Amino acid sequence: MTTTLAANRPAYDGKALDLTGKSGARAFRNTLATVLIVLCFLIALVPLLWILWTVVSKGYHLLLDANWWSQSQRGITVRRVGGGAYHAIMGTLIMSLLCALIAVPIAVMGAVYLVEYGKGTKAAKVVSFMIDILTGVPSIVAALFVYAVWITVLGFNRVGFAVSLALVLLMLPVVLRSTEEMLKLVPDELREAAYALGVPKWKTILKIVVPTAFGGIITGVMLGLARVMGETAPLLILVGYSKNINTNPFDGFMGALPTMINQDRTELALQPAADRVWAAALTLILLVLLLNILARTIARFSTIKSK
Amino acid sequence: MSSTDGTAPPDPPAGEPSAGEPPARATPAAEAPAKNLDLGPVGHLGDRLFAGLARGSGGLVVLIVAFVGIFLLALAIPALADDKSSFLFSRIWEPGGADPKFGIAALFYTTLISSVIAMVIAVPIAVGVALFTTYYAPKRLAAPVAHAVDLLAAVPSIIYGLWGILFFAPILRPVIDGLADALGWIPLFEKPASEDLGVVFTASVVLAIMILPVVTAISREIFAQTPVTHREGALALGATRWEMIRMAVLPYGRSGVVSASMLGLGRALGETIAVLIILSVPNGNDPWNSSIFAGGETFASKIANNAAEFDSPEKTGAYIAAGLVLFVVTFLVNSAARIIVARSTPGGKRQRRPRPDKALEGATP
User: Is B335 in contact with A172 (Cβ distance < 8 A)?
Assistant: First the structure.
């Protein structure tokens, strides 16, 4: 710490010790930096507002139609108006919830291992490093991996469940890391109090540690869900797009919001198709934003106060 | 483990290793001096099961990563053995058939150049935004601003792709023309032959927007950790705010920013659908073009674009081989980022960790 500062000091010799008040050049540089930094922030906001405005303004009117939420695209061609996104919304929800069902227990237990059992050991370091690597695995690689296992080696068909498996790889590190952070925040006094009362370690974890961190874990799950819902690459490779309602993830093709967008994106010159693309995009953004906002709200009200 | 039985006598009837509490009550006293936090009577069936589950989940993560590598490798090897051209240096991509030829040179080039340009654009802006939220924005504004930038990460990538090609690319066109006019003598910036909008540069700028929240979030955290003493020391020496940032905040956060950029780079390398939508695939007969103002294909976009071609093992193997290269590249980039964090974070994790751990350190040998 101090060495870093000391090492940097010579470069500013003289200038830093000039106590005669700010020179014009220094004041100017300071103002320039302020302007540039504020500018950076404004630049970062432009795409966000622009994208949101584009999607909302082009997609909102179909969402006001009740059919959008209750009908599929069955039998509706790109030139025809009508139908809804029910099949795609259901597909997205089924695949991501199935993914959460598999990923969350593994993630929570993995975090329990890192914080409660493996702390400081070499094995825990290896696991931790692998989680970092898993965080960086591109969704297309996860999809190819599941393709290799599910379709090439095991010989199954392209179905919704395969997508869920690929999404597990993407969701696992997100939930695991956030759970780990929350478990770390649980004060040791709580654990010690439980041990002092003679509660076995596993019960302490299940009844004291995990419930204390529950809000944070839910936040992690929501953020993980938000991440996987918007993924397109696994859908392209592991399941075909279907315009019909299919609620069975183990059989047949399945619609999903990203692939619904992808399906019609080449036909944007046709108004009905374009309308549907933007409406599906808005539905997807709303779904993801809703999860994000929910996650942040839960986080705000239930975070363990770190000292 | 066996010590549980040794301490059981005070409570003989409950000696059964069930989930009963009585024996547990006896153990802490006996074991406490030795290991403070492992007080729990680990001999219990419940404890052993639970510990096993936890360890198993940890091990599963390691297995998954190992399996990703192993399976991709296993399926790529047969295809690679049949490859009639150099896999690493050929730019041809004609897998399948009697005479499969495929090489990743062109894919590798486009993937790398588009991601690096994205990083070069995103990092300075991300650092600016991070500084704005940590040291410039009024306190009440800082949190909403941070959330707003985080929201950028919540927008699904397919929407970035659509927006990028339909709305952003036309705006970017004059910039591309200007850059090409000024720097056209460098092959990298060669003037585009067509008026095509789906060029590598456009994809890079959209990728930059997509990785901005990642880099910003990590930089923000690191900057916020700059010790108050450093900052106040700089200010007390008469530094302006900018000088304080240059003297105290930036040196402190340098390695954090570097690793954040690497993580952003990793994200950009693997981005699929946005790139797939934006980049126009060059015509098979066109000569290869190294300019960033031309179309192209990245690993991810190539694989996703040709998912329908996965009909024979040979063809699939070729795409899996490409995916394997992408996996290895992102693995290396991400590992580098982590190693930089672990080695040289001036304060970051190392500084913070000892404090919460202190309570335990007193007890563990």
Answer: no
pLDDT in tens, B212-237: 999 999 899 889 888 999 999 999 98
Chain B CB within 8 Å of residue A56 CB: no
CATH number at residue B241: 1.10.3720.10
**Is residue A81 situated within a structural domain?**
no
Q: Which of B40, B132, B148 has the CB atom closest to A48's CB atom?
A: B148
In the prediction, which pLDDT does B118 show? 95
Domain span at residue A44? 2-64
Q: Are B269 and B111 in contact (CB under 8 A)?
A: yes
- B253, closest residue in chain A (CA to CA): A4
Confirm whether B87 is domain-assigned: no
At residue B358, does pLDDT exceed 50?
no
Q: How many CB atoms lie within 10 A of CB A293?
A: 15
Alpha-carbon span B64 to A66, nearest angstrom: 43
- CA pair distance B84, A208, nearest whole angstrom: 61
| A238 contacts A146 by C-beta, under 8 angstroms | yes
B312 is in which domain, residue-wise? Answer: 93-356
Contact A1 B326 (CB under 8 A): no
Note whether A198 contacts B: Cβ–Cβ < 8 A.
yes
Interface contact B352, partner A, CB < 8 A = no
Q: What is the pLDDT of residue A2?
A: 52
Residues A201 and A100 in one domain: yes
Q: Are residues A149 and A98 in the same domain?
A: yes
Mean pLDDT value across chain A:
87
The structure's pTM equals: 0.83
Q: How many domains does chain B have?
A: 2
Note whether residue B362 is domain-resident: no
B200 lies in some domain? yes
User: Residue A12: its pLDDT value, please?
Assistant: 56
Residue of chain A with shortest Cα separation from B300: A140
Both structure tokens of B178: 């200007």
Judged by CB atoms closer than 8 Å, whether chains meet at B277 and A265 is answered as: yes
Q: How many beta-carbon pairs under 8 angstroms link A with B?
A: 329
**Residue where one domain finishes, among candidates B55, B82, B109:** B82
A164, A99: one domain: yes
B1 pLDDT above the threshold of 50: no
Q: Which residue of A has its CA nearest to B247?
A: A8
Question: What single-letter amino acid sits at B284?
Answer: G
Q: Would the CB atoms of B156 and A232 count as touching at under 8 Å?
A: yes
The average pLDDT across B346-353 equals 44
Q: Do A116 and B54 touch (CB under 8 A)?
A: yes
Q: Which residue out of B70, B155, B160, B257 would a mutagenesis test of the A interface target, given it has the greatest number of A Cβ atoms within 10 Å?
A: B155
- Residue A148 and residue A294 in one domain: yes
A33, A43, A140 ranked by CB distance to B300: nearest? A140
Closest-CA residue to A176 (of A222, A133, A131, A122): A131
> Is residue B353 classed exposed, middle or buried when 0-12, 13-18 and 19+ CB atoms within 10 A define those classes?
exposed
- Per-residue model confidence as pLDDT tens digits over A146-173: 998 998 889 888 899 999 999 999 999 9
Q: Is A30 touching B (CB cutoff 8 A)?
A: yes
> Across the interface, do B334 and A132 touch by the CB < 8 Å criterion?
yes
Q: Tell me whether A100 touches chain B (CB under 8 Å).
A: no
Contacts of B340 (CB under 8 A, 6+ apart): B255, B258, B259, B262
Could you give the angle at the alpha carbon of A272 between the alpha carbons of A266 and A275, nearest 5°?
80
Domain presence at residue B364? no
Record: contact A34-B241, CB cut-off 8 A = yes
The verdict on B274 and B129 lying in the same domain is: yes
Q: Is B86 exposed, middle or buried (0-12, 13-18, 19+ CB in 10 A)?
A: middle
Whether residues A219 and A263 fall in one domain? yes
Comparing A56-65, B16-25, B168-177, the range with the smallest average pLDDT is: B16-25
* A70 part of a folded domain: no
| Chain B from 90 to 119: CB within 8 A of any A CB | none
